[in-house]
Amino acid sequence: MLARIRFSIPDRPGALGRVTSAIGSAGADIAQIDVLESESGRALDDVFVRVRDVPHLQRISAQLAALAGVDVTGVQHPAPPVTGHADLGLIDQVLTRPERGLQTLVDGAPHCFGADWAALVEYGPDLATVNAVLTVSVASPGPEQVVLTSPLRLASVRMIAPGAPEPFSGTALVPIGPGPLALVLVRSHGLDFHRSELWRVGQVGQIVGTVLVRSEAPTG
Hints:
Blueprint: E1 2-10, H1 15-25, E2 29-39, E3 42-50, H2 54-65, E4 71-76, H3 86-96, H4 101-113, E5 117-123, E6 130-136, E7 155-157, E8 170-175, E9 181-187, H5 195-211
Antiparallel strand pairs: 1-3, 1-4, 2-3, 5-6, 5-9, 7-8, 8-9
């Protein structure tokens, strides 16, 4: 199972080496390490690890959290692909059949960007409020779960489903071109969307938006 652990460490030589050594000693294989940011003397990294099962992942996460100076900020499983070409693959699928491109985007984006489900929404003329939920991905709990109060912009936003005590762990709002459409990506548990992830999905939204027209939006 491929999982992702996000952690903060002191930004100094040897700090990352202690983390990788701990992961190796716990019997996991490292697939990839992404440096998300480095500021104020600390670095925020994502490490993608191959583990046997959830208990194995939990042991590794606890072992990392016990290291001096290491702060585990979140864990996600399953993790998104680490090949580096998932974005391009999704765009190719969307553009191959543009007549259903937006539905393809909604169905494929969760796997590509490590979300649990997605939705396509349409904003009103002022781009401040959502007029309609046009479609949702297969794994979605339903369009009624999409309750947005944020204006249309590329951002990590807070979204709470009706009756839920807590917001979803991560919700990304992604404009599709210059019009009123937006992709909503939701992580029910685990990690919020970092700004580097927002940039990636934002690029996909821009490319798709320049090719697909509003008349191709699915209706359900």
